[in-house]
Amino acid sequence: MYFKVSGRYDFIKNFWDKNNKKREELKNKLTPIQFEVTQNDQTEPPFDNEYWDNKEEGIYVDVVSGEVLFTSKEKFDSGCGWPSFTKPVKEDVIIEKRDFSHGMVRTEVRSEKANSHLGHVFDDGPKEHGGLRYCINSASLKFIPKSKMKEMGYYDYIKLIE
Description:
By secondary structure, the protein is an alpha+beta fold. It folds into two domains: 2-30; 58-161, Metal Binding Protein, Guanine Nucleotide Exchange Factor, Chain A. It is 24% helix and 25% strand. Strands 3-4-8-7-6-5 form a six-stranded antiparallel β-sheet. A three-stranded antiparallel β-sheet has the order 2-1-9. The longest helix is centred in the first third of the chain and has 22 residues, at 8-29. The N and C termini lie far apart (64 Å).
């Protein structure tokens, strides 16, 4: 009785309905693997994903929000089977969070704007570039080639890859 009369019932119903609606919208917008990776913190298979060996110039944006996360200039072949980067375009575009899943202690990387699960960051990257390796799921990214950056509204980021 108190739960309904206090207004909490309506608040919770409204809050959860909005979250469920957002998830349904994302399910319709994203591919199944993109949804599982970004929304359910899953990991795609190594060496069997879209960008692990992409060498084209451009930027990598969050597949959910379009927020610019990484550039091809910071991408390197780590041999792990996922796209690897030495750093994000800016520190404030990602959130780092401790991850204790699978019996390991790791640092999860999420996008700041959409809170998409991206992957993990490790301290075994190239020492000459800061020593970090951002190991990112291709399914959480959309690649924008340099040739399309201007027309897609990313003109200001061209200077980062030149």
